[in-house]
Amino acid sequence: MSRAKLPRKSTNIDMTAMCDVAFLLLSFFILTTKFKPAEAITVTTPSSVASKVAPDKDIVLITIDKNGKVFLGLDDEDIKGAMVDIINKQKNISLDANAFKKAEFYGTPFSQLPQFLKIPKEDLKGDALPGIPVDSTKGPNELIEWMGIVHTAYENSGGKKINILLKGDNDSKYPSFDAVIKALKKNDFLKFQMVTNPEAVPIGSDLYKQPREDEGKK
Predict the structure, then answer these.
(1) What does the H/E/C string look like for the chain?
(2) From edge to edge, which strands make up the β-sheet containing 59-64?
(3) Phi, psi dihedrals of residue 106, rounded to the nearest 5°
(4) Stated pTM of the model
(5) Torsion over CA: 15, 20, 26, 32 (sign)
(6) What b-and-e string marks burial along 187-212, b requiring 16 or more CB atoms within 10 Å of the CB?
(7) Which residues have a Cβ under 8 Å from the Cβ of 67 and sit 6 or more positions away?
(8) Cα–chain-centroid distance for residue 122?
(9) pLDDT of the chain, 218 residues: tens digit per residue
(10) Rounded to 5 degrees, what angle do the CA atoms 20, 22, 24 make?
(11) Which of 35, 39, 54, 80 is the most exposed place for a label (fewest CB within 10 A)?
């Protein structure tokens, strides 16, 4: 006896629910995405093939922009609190301790530091600031004093490790870099790391061949 043939019907999938979910996810990602804010100090770092990762805490960052201006930044508010006490005593001024600790960086002579701390964050741009004086032909290298204060603050911190990073613009001039090195040496800071733009090792270079030669010896 032959089997009865059932009529074939085309498969129909309702995509309405999936579209709703897709649009909800898209809306979520759009609303929660945080765009990187514009940097207060614009620096184009040189490229390098170094693979060492910079530390992410106990950082003292010295920045040199394309015009040779020098800026100093720290990430530890306790260290900043110790620094503001030292500055107030040494310079006989009364800085706002809270404003000093909240500042992301410092880029002005000591004489203008009280006014610097009152500048709104949105107006705190490197191009509009004088930077820390380091040109010895125009006056004392104040970065020497800054790094001395940093040194004292870390010495009194109970053993915190200090990581000094130097971030220089690709177009910055040598005199500013030399002045920074002198300020570090004056305070017995003999080790620091350069912040660069990492890139891949050029194919065919000696550095590219080295790992392969080492593997062949094993």
Answers:
(1) CCCCCCCCCCCCCCCHHHHHHHHHHHHHHHHHCCCCCCCCCCCCCCEECCCCCCCCCCEEEEEECCCCCEEEEECCHHHHHHHHHHHHHHHCCCCCHHHHHHCCCECCCHHHHHHHCCCCHHHCCHHHCCCCCCCCCCCCCHHHHHHHHHHHHHHCCCCCCCEEEEEECCCCCHHHHHHHHHHHHHCCCCCCEECCEECCCCCCCHHHHHHHHHHHHC
(2) 70-74, 59-64, 163-168, 193-194
(3) -125, 135
(4) 0.74
(5) negative
(6) bebeebbebbeeeeeeeeeeeeeeee
(7) 172
(8) 18
(9) 556 665 666 566 666 677 777 777 777 777 776 544 456 688 888 877 666 677 778 899 999 999 999 999 999 999 999 999 999 999 999 999 999 999 999 999 999 999 999 999 888 888 889 999 999 888 899 999 999 999 999 999 887 889 999 999 999 889 999 999 999 999 999 988 888 877 665 566 565 566 545 544 55
(10) 70
(11) 35
Tokens of 108: 């002005």
